[in-house]
Amino acid sequence: MRVFLILLIGVSVSSGQVPWFDGDVDTAAAHAQRSGRLLCLVFVKDKCGYCHQLVSEVMPDPAVVAELESMVNLKVAFDSEAGQALAADLEVPGTPTILILYPEMREVDRVTGVNQPAKLAELIRDYRNDRNTFGDLRRRRREDPGNPELIFGLARKHADRHKFTEAFALFDQILEVDPDNHLGWNDDAIYHQGAHLQLNMARPGDALKILSRGLERYPKADKAPVIFYRLALCHRDLNDPKSLAAAYVKYAPQLPVDAMPHRATARLITQLRPTSDDLLQVAWQAAEKALEIEPGNHKNHRVAAGVLLLIDDFDGAKSAIKKAIELAPAVGEYQDMHTFIVNYQRGN
Length: 348
Description:
This protein is an alpha+beta fold. It has 17 helices and four strands. Helix 12 crosses helix 14. The chain is globular.
């Protein structure tokens, strides 16, 4: 086994009740072997907000700690030289990643990103008992090859490892197995294909094709609002507010009731600084719809204020941001925006 001397990174938080192992990965693996326990490696970076959230907020939760106490847990500095070498050996593409291993460094499974404490505790508990692991899903799929839930689970696990060719082939199988989405997994498959193309593979044009096809086929599906949101992000990446506005006009009336896609459309169009009155009209239409659906959400009032600023309605913008402050007084950005509007009006 290669020897890795892993330096713990300077995460400026207390590890709380998390039973961290003090040593390098080889010592930790040896300790796990002697004690008959699994090894849990937590790959984090110092300049990673989600890593800090995982280590300081999620993992110290009593439900998570209860699961971690049965394992040997070690933080690994992903951006150190030794951490990079270990990550390459274990095929860990990014952070935060929790990798659960047998003592001989064979993977049980992994958790990527940040989950709520109850969900993380559930995942760790399942993996410790070999439930819903990569191996478990493969075994179950051999017995039930056409089950879209099992296919989706395996696709997600490939995607978590950035093995997108394998993941996309499985996502496509879901669409073939249940083309009319009777079992409800097709919209999930389409969303994840589009998200990985846009976010992880920097291919927004290809993502648009898949996401648009999903909205055409399943406009009322549960995932339709987030499919549209991801489509809107693709138009933003392509710096194309005109196509974003056209997509909103086409798809928004069909979507399930949800303020998020409307708020996102208004926000992204304003971020792209449109000069056309037609585009600003669509942005305001989207902002109004978000407010209609969810008037008590401060984010909707903040977005409305941004649109109103672009159409030179400073009184309306000031009123909208004051409402956002009333709903979320701790958000400093809102007070800054209010101050800017007041000062601008005084200067003019």
